[in-house]
């Protein structure tokens, strides 16, 4: 069984090699993203393994099908980058890792919030230059604040639990209210109310046609002045241009983003010697109250182990029995 990896980083090799011993797949790692230009690298393989920024469009799927590839295995949870309808039409199976470590992503969202609020990134640099002044480092107590959570699936739920530990009031919006969470004190409200009442808003819903640009010019009219917005989900949830205007106007107090609409041209690469031509990310990074991390929320040893274990298991099960033990892992 040959599996071709796209968008491979060294850490992918480390974790997949470690857990592949029990499967013995013939894994070929490619650094290139999966695109129409690189799809031929999949020749001779039974499965391709892709990540968040590989564009698995209908055209790519047609080529994969022509190459007799049978399985598209996502080594991530989100799947907005795969044309599932096309995969179905061309008879390819698509699987993902529905939950590997929701805590890893939720904890990173909290890390971004704490950094932005208490400005530890600035303090770190300051004291190294023997500047022990506190001006400009003023934060607020998170205890007692109202936190709005959009999307209360695996990650949103873990985030709510942590924020309850801080002593926050938690408001949530999801398509369906979660009874267990309600019993634990989370208040499910309409989206507008969550946006209006929250001091901190954290995005944890998937990117779909309904959620695209959920943070936009109109919804930013509703939020509290000085609100902190954290996005560890997908860049497309935020209308970046609208957010920049709200930052310029001082409406947004702080913004933490681990994901960005145009991230595929930037993230997971060392561009330190390059000229960045994306003026939007440059503008965002120029705000003192904006923290950008490059899609690293998932990046813990526990999460990478679980991603490798589940992905290899998914591929083995699809190849052998054409079915998956973990139902949520099967997309097509
Ligand atoms: P999940 O499927 O467990 O939960 C998603 C939740 O969003 C569900 O409860 C669903 O009902 C809700 N939802 C769907 N449409 C909605 C809508 N229109 N409005 C409000 N809620 C809606 O997913 P998860 O594991 O919690 O992951 C959430 C997202 O986090 C993923 O889709 C992925 O994009 C992102 N993610 C990011 C990273 C990272 O490293 N930054 C890692 C993993 C996942």
TrEMBL record:
Span of domain D-isomer specific 2-hydroxyacid dehydrogenase catalytic: 4-323
Molecular function as annotated in GO: NAD binding; oxidoreductase activity, acting on the CH-OH group of donors, NAD or NADP as acceptor
The protein's name: 2-hydroxyacid dehydrogenase
Family label: Belongs to the D-isomer specific 2-hydroxyacid dehydrogenase family.
SUPFAM superfamilies listed in its UniProt record: Formate/glycerate dehydrogenase catalytic domain-like, NAD(P)-binding Rossmann-fold domains
Record key words, sorted: NAD, Oxidoreductase
Lineage top rank: taxon: Bacteria
D-isomer specific 2-hydroxyacid dehydrogenase NAD-binding domain location: 110-297
PROSITE patterns tied to this protein: D_2_HYDROXYACID_DH_1, D_2_HYDROXYACID_DH_2
InterPro entries for the chain: D-isomer_2_OHA_DH_cat_dom, D-isomer_DH_CS, D-isomer_DH_CS1, D-isomer_DH_NAD-bd, D-LDH-like, NAD(P)-bd_dom_sf
Pfam family of the protein (one): 2-Hacid_dh_C
Transmembrane segments: none
Organism, scientific name: Filimonas effusa
